[in-house]
Design goal:
One of its GO terms (cellular component) is ATP-binding cassette (ABC) transporter complex. The chain crosses the membrane at residues 12-31, 51-69, 145-175, 195-219, 231-253. It is found in: Membrane. With 262 residues, this protein is mainly α. It has one domain (43-250). The chain has helices at 13-32, 41-48, 50-77, 84-122, 125-131, 136-175, 179-189, 192-218, 224-253. The longest helix is centred in the middle third of the chain and has 40 residues, at 136-175. The radius of gyration is 21 Å and the shape is elongated.
Length: 262
Protein backbone atom coordinates (compact mmCIF):
# COMPACT_ATOMS: atom_id res chain seq x y z
CA UNK A 1 0.00 0.00 0.00
CA UNK A 2 1.47 3.34 -1.01
CA UNK A 3 0.18 6.89 -0.73
CA UNK A 4 -1.24 8.61 -3.75
CA UNK A 5 1.34 10.36 -5.89
CA UNK A 6 1.20 13.27 -8.24
CA UNK A 7 1.84 16.98 -8.27
CA UNK A 8 -1.53 17.95 -6.79
CA UNK A 9 -2.32 14.88 -4.72
CA UNK A 10 -1.67 14.20 -1.08
CA UNK A 11 -1.85 10.97 0.91
CA UNK A 12 -4.85 10.46 3.14
CA UNK A 13 -4.24 10.67 6.87
CA UNK A 14 -5.12 7.04 7.52
CA UNK A 15 -2.67 5.91 4.83
CA UNK A 16 0.06 7.96 6.45
CA UNK A 17 -0.79 6.47 9.82
CA UNK A 18 -0.69 2.92 8.45
CA UNK A 19 2.61 3.65 6.70
CA UNK A 20 4.06 5.00 9.96
CA UNK A 21 2.99 1.91 11.92
CA UNK A 22 4.57 -0.32 9.28
CA UNK A 23 7.69 1.81 9.39
CA UNK A 24 7.95 1.44 13.19
CA UNK A 25 7.91 -2.33 12.75
CA UNK A 26 10.68 -2.09 10.15
CA UNK A 27 12.70 0.17 12.44
CA UNK A 28 12.71 -2.35 15.28
CA UNK A 29 13.37 -5.24 12.90
CA UNK A 30 16.39 -3.46 11.44
CA UNK A 31 17.56 -2.50 14.92
CA UNK A 32 17.45 -6.15 16.04
CA UNK A 33 19.33 -7.13 12.89
CA UNK A 34 21.98 -4.48 13.58
CA UNK A 35 21.24 -2.52 10.42
CA UNK A 36 21.74 1.12 11.26
CA UNK A 37 24.00 3.98 10.24
CA UNK A 38 25.54 4.71 13.63
CA UNK A 39 27.59 7.64 12.34
CA UNK A 40 24.35 9.57 11.81
CA UNK A 41 23.09 9.08 15.37
CA UNK A 42 25.29 11.71 17.15
CA UNK A 43 24.11 14.41 14.74
CA UNK A 44 20.48 13.74 15.59
CA UNK A 45 21.26 13.35 19.28
CA UNK A 46 22.46 16.95 19.27
CA UNK A 47 19.42 18.17 17.31
CA UNK A 48 17.03 16.38 19.65
CA UNK A 49 18.82 17.09 22.93
CA UNK A 50 21.03 20.18 23.35
CA UNK A 51 19.39 22.08 20.48
CA UNK A 52 15.97 21.59 22.09
CA UNK A 53 17.05 22.13 25.68
CA UNK A 54 16.47 25.89 26.00
CA UNK A 55 12.77 25.93 24.98
CA UNK A 56 12.12 22.80 27.06
CA UNK A 57 13.70 24.24 30.20
CA UNK A 58 12.06 27.65 29.82
CA UNK A 59 8.64 26.11 29.20
CA UNK A 60 8.90 23.88 32.28
CA UNK A 61 10.29 26.69 34.44
CA UNK A 62 7.39 29.01 33.64
CA UNK A 63 4.83 26.20 33.79
CA UNK A 64 6.14 25.20 37.22
CA UNK A 65 5.74 28.76 38.46
CA UNK A 66 2.23 29.09 37.00
CA UNK A 67 1.12 25.74 38.43
CA UNK A 68 2.49 26.59 41.88
CA UNK A 69 0.81 30.00 41.92
CA UNK A 70 -2.58 28.55 41.02
CA UNK A 71 -2.27 25.59 43.39
CA UNK A 72 -0.88 27.54 46.34
CA UNK A 73 -3.70 30.06 46.08
CA UNK A 74 -6.25 27.33 46.79
CA UNK A 75 -4.19 25.56 49.43
CA UNK A 76 -3.52 28.82 51.25
CA UNK A 77 -7.26 29.46 51.57
CA UNK A 78 -7.59 26.01 53.21
CA UNK A 79 -4.61 26.44 55.51
CA UNK A 80 -2.59 23.71 53.81
CA UNK A 81 0.02 25.83 52.06
CA UNK A 82 2.91 23.60 53.21
CA UNK A 83 1.50 20.75 51.10
CA UNK A 84 1.97 22.66 47.86
CA UNK A 85 5.10 20.67 47.01
CA UNK A 86 3.27 17.37 47.27
CA UNK A 87 0.43 18.52 45.03
CA UNK A 88 3.03 19.85 42.62
CA UNK A 89 4.79 16.47 42.54
CA UNK A 90 1.58 14.54 41.92
CA UNK A 91 0.28 16.66 39.06
CA UNK A 92 3.22 18.48 37.49
CA UNK A 93 5.87 15.85 38.13
CA UNK A 94 3.87 12.85 36.98
CA UNK A 95 1.88 14.28 34.09
CA UNK A 96 2.42 17.89 33.07
CA UNK A 97 6.23 17.88 32.84
CA UNK A 98 6.52 14.85 30.50
CA UNK A 99 3.62 15.96 28.29
CA UNK A 100 4.84 19.56 28.07
CA UNK A 101 8.40 18.48 27.30
CA UNK A 102 7.32 15.99 24.65
CA UNK A 103 5.06 18.55 22.96
CA UNK A 104 7.89 21.09 22.82
CA UNK A 105 10.22 18.48 21.30
CA UNK A 106 7.52 17.49 18.81
CA UNK A 107 7.13 21.11 17.75
CA UNK A 108 10.85 21.60 17.22
CA UNK A 109 12.27 18.20 16.32
CA UNK A 110 9.29 16.35 14.83
CA UNK A 111 8.52 19.18 12.44
CA UNK A 112 12.19 19.39 11.44
CA UNK A 113 12.29 15.65 10.68
CA UNK A 114 9.15 15.90 8.57
CA UNK A 115 10.46 18.93 6.68
CA UNK A 116 13.92 17.47 6.07
CA UNK A 117 12.72 14.10 4.84
CA UNK A 118 9.80 15.67 2.96
CA UNK A 119 12.21 17.92 1.06
CA UNK A 120 14.35 14.90 0.25
CA UNK A 121 11.25 13.05 -0.93
CA UNK A 122 10.03 15.68 -3.39
CA UNK A 123 13.57 16.28 -4.68
CA UNK A 124 13.89 12.52 -5.36
CA UNK A 125 16.84 12.08 -2.99
CA UNK A 126 15.02 9.13 -1.41
CA UNK A 127 14.87 7.46 -4.83
CA UNK A 128 18.58 8.12 -5.19
CA UNK A 129 19.22 6.21 -1.97
CA UNK A 130 17.42 3.20 -3.38
CA UNK A 131 19.52 3.51 -6.53
CA UNK A 132 22.65 3.41 -4.36
CA UNK A 133 21.23 0.33 -2.59
CA UNK A 134 20.87 2.25 0.68
CA UNK A 135 17.76 1.60 2.73
CA UNK A 136 16.20 4.90 3.95
CA UNK A 137 15.08 3.08 7.11
CA UNK A 138 18.71 2.48 8.09
CA UNK A 139 20.15 5.76 6.84
CA UNK A 140 17.42 8.31 7.63
CA UNK A 141 14.77 7.00 9.98
CA UNK A 142 16.42 4.66 12.48
CA UNK A 143 19.06 7.21 13.65
CA UNK A 144 16.35 9.82 14.19
CA UNK A 145 14.08 7.49 16.15
CA UNK A 146 17.00 6.29 18.30
CA UNK A 147 17.99 9.88 19.03
CA UNK A 148 14.46 10.72 20.17
CA UNK A 149 14.27 7.60 22.35
CA UNK A 150 17.55 8.54 24.04
CA UNK A 151 17.08 12.27 24.49
CA UNK A 152 13.38 12.76 25.30
CA UNK A 153 13.62 10.96 28.71
CA UNK A 154 16.65 13.09 29.60
CA UNK A 155 14.87 16.27 28.59
CA UNK A 156 11.84 15.25 30.68
CA UNK A 157 13.98 14.84 33.81
CA UNK A 158 15.76 18.15 33.20
CA UNK A 159 12.43 19.84 32.56
CA UNK A 160 11.08 18.44 35.83
CA UNK A 161 14.09 19.80 37.71
CA UNK A 162 13.57 23.26 36.25
CA UNK A 163 9.83 23.03 36.90
CA UNK A 164 10.51 22.24 40.56
CA UNK A 165 12.91 25.19 40.64
CA UNK A 166 10.21 27.46 39.29
CA UNK A 167 7.76 26.10 41.84
CA UNK A 168 10.20 26.69 44.68
CA UNK A 169 10.78 30.27 43.56
CA UNK A 170 7.09 31.07 43.20
CA UNK A 171 6.15 29.47 46.53
CA UNK A 172 8.94 31.25 48.39
CA UNK A 173 8.43 34.69 46.87
CA UNK A 174 4.64 34.83 46.85
CA UNK A 175 3.55 32.57 49.71
CA UNK A 176 6.65 32.52 51.96
CA UNK A 177 6.98 28.73 51.77
CA UNK A 178 10.60 27.84 52.63
CA UNK A 179 12.41 25.93 49.85
CA UNK A 180 13.21 23.03 52.19
CA UNK A 181 9.53 22.65 53.11
CA UNK A 182 8.59 22.59 49.42
CA UNK A 183 11.30 20.01 48.61
CA UNK A 184 10.39 17.80 51.57
CA UNK A 185 6.80 17.75 50.39
CA UNK A 186 7.93 16.87 46.86
CA UNK A 187 10.11 14.01 48.13
CA UNK A 188 7.21 12.65 50.17
CA UNK A 189 5.01 12.23 47.09
CA UNK A 190 7.41 11.80 44.15
CA UNK A 191 8.67 8.22 44.45
CA UNK A 192 11.42 6.34 42.65
CA UNK A 193 8.93 4.45 40.52
CA UNK A 194 7.54 7.80 39.37
CA UNK A 195 10.95 8.74 37.99
CA UNK A 196 11.21 5.35 36.28
CA UNK A 197 7.77 5.93 34.79
CA UNK A 198 8.94 9.29 33.46
CA UNK A 199 11.77 7.51 31.64
CA UNK A 200 9.38 4.90 30.26
CA UNK A 201 7.01 7.57 29.03
CA UNK A 202 9.94 9.46 27.52
CA UNK A 203 10.97 6.46 25.44
CA UNK A 204 7.43 5.96 24.13
CA UNK A 205 7.03 9.66 23.43
CA UNK A 206 10.38 9.64 21.63
CA UNK A 207 9.29 6.76 19.41
CA UNK A 208 6.07 8.58 18.55
CA UNK A 209 7.80 11.89 17.79
CA UNK A 210 10.57 10.37 15.68
CA UNK A 211 8.37 7.90 13.81
CA UNK A 212 5.56 10.36 13.04
CA UNK A 213 7.97 13.06 11.93
CA UNK A 214 9.79 10.64 9.62
CA UNK A 215 6.58 8.94 8.46
CA UNK A 216 4.89 12.17 7.50
CA UNK A 217 8.07 13.24 5.72
CA UNK A 218 8.34 9.99 3.79
CA UNK A 219 4.74 10.33 2.59
CA UNK A 220 5.15 13.90 1.32
CA UNK A 221 4.14 14.37 -2.32
CA UNK A 222 3.84 17.46 -4.48
CA UNK A 223 6.01 20.53 -3.95
CA UNK A 224 7.41 22.90 -1.35
CA UNK A 225 3.93 23.77 -0.05
CA UNK A 226 3.28 20.13 0.80
CA UNK A 227 6.55 19.98 2.77
CA UNK A 228 5.26 22.69 5.09
CA UNK A 229 1.90 20.97 5.37
CA UNK A 230 3.60 17.69 6.30
CA UNK A 231 5.66 19.41 8.99
CA UNK A 232 2.58 21.05 10.48
CA UNK A 233 0.56 17.82 10.35
CA UNK A 234 3.43 15.90 11.98
CA UNK A 235 3.37 18.26 14.97
CA UNK A 236 -0.40 17.97 15.38
CA UNK A 237 -0.45 14.18 15.07
CA UNK A 238 2.56 13.85 17.40
CA UNK A 239 0.75 15.92 20.04
CA UNK A 240 -2.34 13.74 19.73
CA UNK A 241 -0.19 10.60 19.97
CA UNK A 242 1.55 11.92 23.11
CA UNK A 243 -1.77 12.48 24.86
CA UNK A 244 -3.10 9.11 23.69
CA UNK A 245 -0.01 7.29 24.96
CA UNK A 246 -0.19 9.06 28.31
CA UNK A 247 -3.88 8.20 28.63
CA UNK A 248 -3.21 4.55 27.80
CA UNK A 249 -0.44 4.37 30.40
CA UNK A 250 -2.69 5.97 33.01
CA UNK A 251 -5.45 3.46 32.30
CA UNK A 252 -3.20 0.40 32.16
CA UNK A 253 -0.73 1.14 34.95
CA UNK A 254 -2.55 3.65 37.10
CA UNK A 255 -4.36 2.83 40.31
CA UNK A 256 -7.98 2.86 39.15
CA UNK A 257 -10.75 3.05 41.75
CA UNK A 258 -12.55 -0.21 42.43
CA UNK A 259 -16.31 -0.03 42.66
CA UNK A 260 -17.58 -1.71 45.78
CA UNK A 261 -20.85 -3.66 45.59
CA UNK A 262 -23.87 -1.90 47.02
Amino acid sequence: MSPRSGANSRPYGYIRFAFTLLMIGQVWLHLIQGKTCLKKVPEHLFKTGPASMLPVLLANLMAGMIFTIQTARQLDSMGAINSVGGVFALAFGRELAPILTACVVAGQVGSAFAAEIGAMKISEQIDALYTLRTDPIDYLILPRVLACCAMVPILIILGLVFGIGGGIFAAAQLYQVPPLVFLDSVRSFLLTQDLLMLGFKGVLFGIAIGAIGCGWGMTTYGGVKQVGESATAAVIVSGMAIFAIDLAISLLLGDLPIKKPM
